[in-house]
Amino acid sequence: MSVTIETDLKDILVQLNGKLERIQDDITDLKVGQAEINGEIKTINTKIVGVNDKIDGLQKTVDKLAVDVSASKQDISDLKGVKSLIIPGFVAILASLLTFVFRGINL
User: Could you give the C-alpha distances from 14 to 10, 20, 22, 59, 87, in angstroms and in order?
Assistant: First the structure.
């Protein structure tokens, strides 16, 4: 028993062309999608650079603040030393004034 298949070669070529066109459309869509992804990656990279610049700026600010805090601690330490001299100085001035007042009064 033999089977005979009759198909027109033109129909087969039309089907193949249709499939090839769909494959080409899919490839075009993939290329467009890839281009969009590449654009988004470039945008993200640009934003990352900007964030890195801001972080560097913040680090410089933190470093400056650390120096300022250290200087402030030294200034406070110096004031504590001066504070210990204020009361004795005040007492000495008050004693001198009282001495002048009492010497000025003749009893």
Answer: 6, 10, 12, 67, 108
